[in-house]
Amino acid sequence: MIDMHIHAVNPQLPGVRHIPDFLSGPLEPLVAILRQQMQESGTEAMLGMGHLGGTADDPLGIASTLRIAELLPVLHPIGVADPTRIDTEHLQRVERQLQSGKVKALKGYLGYLYYGPDSPAYVPYYELAARYKLPFIFHTGDNYSDLAKVKYAHPLLVDEVAVDHRGVNFVMAHFGNPWITDAAEVLYKNENVWADLSGLLVGDDAYFANMTERGVVRRVVERVKQGIEFTERPDKFLYGTDWPLAPMRTYRDFVRELIPENYHQAVFHDNAKALFKM
Length: 278
Known about the structure:
By secondary structure, the chain is an alpha/beta fold. It has one domain (2-275): TIM Barrel, CATH 3.20.20.140. It contains 10 helices and 8 strands.
């Protein structure tokens, strides 16, 4: 099983709160927690989001993830594409980091930064993604910050760049939740658009138990299943947990309810392995 959406480092996004302290602490305790989560959930590999605000030596914000990966080699980094930094020197440094072959994808934090996917500032990153055959992930849907502007994170905006940049595979993180029907249309229409199923519910085990008892989980499952059915392409979905915002084992069980059983192997493993060349 491949979890293609976790946070092993603090993403350092404006206004984001309630990030566990262990993401900013010593590496050994963090790695121990990750190993336990992986063992309990049956996870064999993970993709970890980088952080915003990379340095000259680390323009994609992946150095901390790479240090963790030295202790946990099944963790692979996803670099952050920062639309506020598009000067030639920065982009050259980004390209040098991509040339290492360690980066599995690029990510744009829509809504947290006030740039839509169709902003010209993202185009140089799309060109790099196409050149190095890397998927480009967008945060879509609800933002985990009251400073974010959600209009920039609407999944319909992904259609703009999917049409204009056919050489790039785009991934809508969180399936555009709560705009799942809109996200489903974008995926259905565009062969180069995928979606991950991370972050549809956020909380600890007690939260999931409470939401299950209240019938909330059942209603979320019904809503997401309708979106997946609309796409007619359950083979274009990816498993992710958004850990540590949800426990890996509990979230795995939740996602199992969303996907037809005959597509579990594809969604939990094969799709990510192929898309991210793992």
